């Protein structure tokens, strides 16, 4: 028997997932929820949704959909809302999928507190939590995890991860912010964020760290122990950075396996957008679609690197679609994210990017920003351990 899934947040990014959830063969029923009625109507009126969507499953708020009998919620709302909404969903008996990051609010202590509460809620309720980290399902991450499982890297020495996204890049962050603040939920945040500003709390790009930290963490299966980080302050009085202590942050981590990791989160940088990582080991290394040992370098295609999807899932995603639409955006990761969550819920197992794994990505960013605020002070990074059943 399949599962039922409620899609909460049908804005710019949530809309990109609706059709993949509808198509998944293990999804029997889809609910639609947004505070902006026209965003629900767009899918409710789509004939393709008729077979799995009943108009009674249209909801105008998270509170309403939490009262439904749907099994799981996919929460793709604005980044400051994810953690409290996931908590509310799990307390209402739902499994939850969260867009990244776990939480992005200006106060790093509050972010760590949300990690703590979510771990506790998963343990206490037994509900499943999955972070929808796109980098985790980039083809290179899948390939590097397979190489790591076979010991092909030898001992891990060093990793680099980076998320370069200039504020005026092709995907323009000023436009993204304007759009996110234009809705009812966005307007509430304008008032709330002023409270952080008045308390003198300034955020930074390390509060959105999961695209850069997840690669090294998931490939090495190691967590950060200590960090030192430096920030670059915007020097042009750009209003986009008025609530940020830094526009760019660069951090070094000592990892639990003895390796060193360098992470860059840059929002003011003269480079095209880039979201990637490199891994260096004593026997083998991975960089830019290339596997290397000390004598050879082998170029790899995306098809060679990515894991196969179950044939019936791939067929359902591909039906009537182009190759790129079948796998979805962000390096074809969307298809894998949808499958991983649906399959985990259907089989009552922890998803790969469960809260214990996701908290490792997030804590690195929160503590890196704290270090940058203290001009590179060396700080410990908290860890919540492995998911139940995976303890080493
Ligand atoms: N690569 C990636 O992983 C990636 C890329 C883009 C965006 N994102 C994440 O996706 C999230 C959504 O971004 P977006 O650009 O789609 O934002 P958006 O503002 O376009 O959409 C958010 C939607 O959530 C709805 N919403 C908020 N609170 C609600 C509630 N209580 N009940 C029902 N609906 C509610 C809003 O009305 C809005 O339509 C962000 O958190 C962002 O971090 C991740």
Report on this model:
- This protein has 392 residues and is α/β, with parallel strands linked by helices.
- The protein folds into 2 domains: 3-131, 3-Layer(aba) Sandwich (Rossmann fold); 135-308 and 354-380, 2-Layer Sandwich (Dihydrodipicolinate Reductase, domain 2).
- The protein is built from 14 helices and 15 strands.
- A 9-stranded mixed beta sheet has the order 14-13-12-11-7-10-9-8-15, with helices on one face.
- The longest helix is centred in the C-terminal third of the chain and has 19 residues, at 355-373.
- The radius of gyration is 20 Å and the shape is globular.
- The chain starts with a strand and ends in a 12-residue tail after the last strand.
- Residues 8-14, 33-36, 39, 61-62, 76-79, 81, 99-100, 134, 176, 179-180, 183, 185, 330 line the site of nicotinamide-adenine-dinucleotide (NAD).
- Nicotinamide-adenine-dinucleotide binds next to helix 7.
């Amino acid at each position: 028997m399949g599962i039922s899934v409620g899609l909460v947040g049908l804005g710019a990014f949530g809309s990109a997932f609706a059709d993949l959830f509808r198509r998944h063969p293990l999804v029997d029923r889809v609910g639609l929820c947004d505070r902006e009625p026209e965003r629900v109507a767009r899918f409710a009126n789509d004939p393709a949704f008729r077979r799995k969507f009943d108009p009674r499953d249209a909801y105008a708020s998270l509170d309403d959909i939490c009262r439904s009998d749907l099994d799981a919620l996919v929460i793709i709302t604005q980044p400051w809302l994810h953690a409290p909404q996931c908590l509310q969903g799990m307390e209402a008996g739902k499994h939850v999928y969260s867009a990244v990051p776990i939480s992005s609010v200006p106060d790093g202590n509050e972010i760590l507190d949300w990690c703590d509460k979510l771990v506790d809620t998963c343990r206490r309720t037994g509900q499943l939590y999955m972070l929808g980290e796109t980098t985790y399902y980039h083809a290179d991450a899948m390939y590097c995890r397979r190489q790591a499982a076979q010991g092909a890297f030898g001992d891990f020495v060093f990793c680099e991860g980076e998320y370069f996204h200039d504020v005026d890049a092709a995907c323009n962050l000023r436009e993204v912010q304007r759009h996110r603040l234009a809705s009812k939920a966005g307007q509430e945040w304008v008032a709330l964020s002023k409270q952080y500003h008045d308390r003198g709390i300034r955020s930074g790009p390390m509060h959105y760290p999961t695209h850069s930290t997840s690669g090294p963490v998931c490939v090495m299966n190691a967590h950060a122990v200590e960090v030192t980080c430096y920030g670059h302050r915007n020097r042009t009085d750009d209003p986009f950075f008025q609530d940020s202590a830094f526009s760019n942050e660069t951090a070094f981590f000592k990892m639990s396996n003895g390796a060193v990791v360098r992470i860059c989160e840059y929002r003011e940088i003269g480079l095209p957008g880039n979201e990637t990582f490199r891994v260096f080991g004593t026997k083998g290394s991975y960089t830019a679609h290339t596997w290397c040992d000390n004598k050879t370098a082998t170029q790899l295609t995306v098809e060679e690197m990515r894991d196969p999807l179950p044939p019936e899932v791939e067929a359902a995603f591909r039906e009537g679609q182009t190759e790129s639409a079948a796998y979805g955006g962000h390096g074809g990761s969307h298809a894998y994210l949808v499958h991983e969550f649906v399959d985990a819920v259907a089989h009552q197992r922890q998803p790969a990017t469960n809260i214990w794994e996701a908290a490792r990505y997030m804590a690195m960013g929160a503590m890196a920003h704290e270090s940058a605020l203290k001009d590179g002070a060396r700080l410990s990074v908290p860890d919540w351990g492995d998911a139940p059943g995976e303890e080493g």
